[in-house]
Amino acid sequence: MSTIEKEFDSLKPWVTQFTINGKKYGGEISFDNDNRITQFFDAFPDIHSVLELGSLEGGHTFQLAKKPGISILGIEGRDYNVKKANFVKDLLKIENARFVCGDLEKTRLTSFGNFDAVFCSGILYHMPKPWNLISEISKITEKVFIWTHYAPDEKGTIQANGYQGFWHKEFGFSGYKKPLKGLSKRSFWVTQSSLMDMLNNYGFRNSIVYDDSPDHVNGPAITLAAWKPTENPTF
Q1: What is the pLDDT of residue 230?
Q2: 78 with 173: CB under 8 angstroms?
Q3: CA of 71: how far to CAs of 108, 112, 133, in Å?
Q4: In a domain, 160, yes or no
């Protein structure tokens, strides 16, 4: 077993798969050639600073970092994931990304300053109050890119804070057992229409949907870019 293999083994379990010097390490999910990275820069081509929410082990972060002139701050709720991300960052010799540990249910994003855009993939549907996160995002950027699951717009949804959706079981901060679950014991999945209302209510009144997958295996999912009217991304 090589030194790198031993180091990866000491930090397992892994979710993300990384290719280093042509060899694969880590978990089963690769973010190489992820369409969401292409879509993000298609929507917002002239940005320089990016805040990534829920950076996990850095899979998306390191793909974003490939674009010249970009600096990225990743916020991740689990400290062991930050440790893994920094380990891989050093292996890949990436200098334009850094990571901090922070609970996005409590962290004030304004404490990190303003950003040209926010990359919010795979995190909104883990929040018990997703409207709070959108509110925080609205304070520090004009542009946001979102990939999230949403609640089917059907009978049986309830209303929370004026938005339709349903409660979804999470597992809280449970160590290594549920690395892709939220930090609270439940989250609120809003319907697609309520998601759009939420964005509009916090100033993101323009948007483009890149993908809508109502039959996604883990629940309906949508990919979109949204921005405030003062900004005009090039598509």
Answers
A1: 74
A2: yes
A3: 20, 13, 22
A4: yes
Task: Give me the domain span that covers residue 40.
Answer: 34-227
Tell whether pTM > 0.70.
Answer: yes
The 10s digit of each residue's pLDDT in 110-149 is 999 999 999 999 999 999 999 999 999 999 999 999 999 9
Largest CA distance in the chain: 55
**Phi and psi at residue 204, to the nearest 5°:** -90, 80
Beta strands in 54-162 (DSSP E): 71-76, 97-101, 117-121, 143-149, 158-160
> Within 10 Å of residue 155's Cβ, how many Cβ atoms?
5
192 is a domain residue: yes
Helix (H) or strand (E) holding 167: strand 163-169
> What does residue 158 show for φ and ψ, rounded to 5 degrees?
-120, 180
The tokens describing 110, both together, are: 């304004």
Residue 67 lies inside a defined structural domain of this protein: yes
pLDDT digits (tens, 9 = 90+) for 165-178: 999 887 655 544 45
| Total domains present in the chain | 1
Query: Which amino acid, 15?
Result: V
Q: Give backbone dihedrals phi and psi of 121, rounded to 5 degrees, phi first.
A: -115, 120
Average pLDDT of the residues in 149-175 = 83
Give the C-alpha separation, 10 to 17, whole Å: 15
Distances (CA, A) of 178 to 58, 166, 181, 207: 17, 21, 6, 32
Q: What interhelical angle do 130-138 and 192-201 show, nearest 10?
A: 30
| CATH code of the domain in which 86 resides | 3.40.50.150
Please indicate, yes or no, if residue 60 is contained in any of the structural domains. yes
pLDDT of the residue at 176: 44
